Amino acid sequence: MSTDEDDLEPIEPGTAQELFLDHKATDCTDSTVRNHRYRLNPFVRWCGENGIDNLNELSGRDLQRYRLWRKEDGDLNKLTLRMQMSTLRVLLKWAGSIEAVPQNLYDKVMVPRVHPEERKRDETLDAEDAQEIMDYLSKYEYASKEHAVMALLWQTGIRVGSAHSLDVDDVFTDENYVQLIHRPDEGTTLKNAKSGQRPVALTPAVSEVLADYIRNHRKDVTDDYGRDPLFTTPHGWMHGNTIRRITYRVTAPCYRGADCPDCAAGEEKCPEAVSPHAIRRGSITHFLTSDVPVDVVSDRMNVSRKVLDEHYDKRSEEVKMEQRRGYLDNV
């Protein structure tokens, strides 16, 4: 059922943005709401510059003009433009539900398709998607191996090799941290060897997930060195490639029943799924966007400041500007 134009109620773009963000705040993290705001700010600005003071007037042709303007104005790559247009699509779908725009207008938002080879370098798990994945796993697959792997990787940003190296005794659920140890003589290593050894803090919620996974779902096996690996199969250690396959599976939108526009029937791997490295990159960006100091993130993730800046920090220049503004406003 579509909304007749005569049934639409006038609303300014800025007002719609605030109401939408209030709506998202009821079930999203503060960081997710901030990301929505950053991505929608250019749209509200564009509406002001083009005399659109009522969303009722917005047309598919306007959306096309905005997409082209945004690409040129922000000098955006395809991945960033895709995220911004996807967020606009979500806004307009919500706006259709409150009679602010025609209900099918969101279908006219052209979201750029990004081919796998184009995604590889900058592929990042968005904080909003990560929250949706965690919400789904918490509700339907609590403390499963999938839940434990995703909770650990997203919350800590550690590498797959680090997750693979953990023993049960390295997980201190009462004190809320895991201890990463380089053990080349016992079959597991850290990328930066002994310099990668460190304790990594967990939230109490993630500690509880790991504790319940160990108690209820971990296969009880011990290896030839007498070690009790954290992630196991009935045959012993869970291989690093198995951990990778888990992340590809659970990050696919279709896994949790979400819209997956690029998924083609018969494909072995959903093109919307992301790699463990994208989870690490997304986790680092999430912490930075949440105003955690860069040096703290660098130490926690065991990555140099230079490498972090060049390869992991995927905040847009607008996000960085707004964060700087927050500090300067208090001077």
From TrEMBL:
<dbReference type="InterPro" id="IPR010998">
    <property type="entry name" value="Integrase_recombinase_N"/>
</dbReference>
<dbReference type="InterPro" id="IPR050090">
    <property type="entry name" value="Tyrosine_recombinase_XerCD"/>
</dbReference>
<keyword id="KW-0233">DNA recombination</keyword>
<dbReference type="GO" id="GO:0003677">
    <property type="term" value="F:DNA binding"/>
</dbReference>
<feature type="domain" description="Core-binding (CB)">
    <location>
        <begin position="11"/>
        <end position="96"/>
    </location>
</feature>
<feature type="domain" description="Tyr recombinase">
    <location>
        <begin position="120"/>
        <end position="325"/>
    </location>
</feature>
<keyword id="KW-0238">DNA-binding</keyword>
<dbReference type="InterPro" id="IPR002104">
    <property type="entry name" value="Integrase_catalytic"/>
</dbReference>
<keyword id="KW-0229">DNA integration</keyword>
<dbReference type="InterPro" id="IPR044068">
    <property type="entry name" value="CB"/>
</dbReference>
<dbReference type="GO" id="GO:0015074">
    <property type="term" value="P:DNA integration"/>
</dbReference>
<dbReference type="InterPro" id="IPR011010">
    <property type="entry name" value="DNA_brk_join_enz"/>
</dbReference>
<dbReference type="Pfam" id="PF02899">
    <property type="entry name" value="Phage_int_SAM_1"/>
</dbReference>
<dbReference type="GO" id="GO:0006310">
    <property type="term" value="P:DNA recombination"/>
</dbReference>
<dbReference type="InterPro" id="IPR013762">
    <property type="entry name" value="Integrase-like_cat_sf"/>
</dbReference>
<protein>
    <submittedName>
        <fullName>Tyrosine-type recombinase/integrase</fullName>
    </submittedName>
</protein>
<dbReference type="InterPro" id="IPR004107">
    <property type="entry name" value="Integrase_SAM-like_N"/>
</dbReference>
<dbReference type="Pfam" id="PF00589">
    <property type="entry name" value="Phage_integrase"/>
</dbReference>
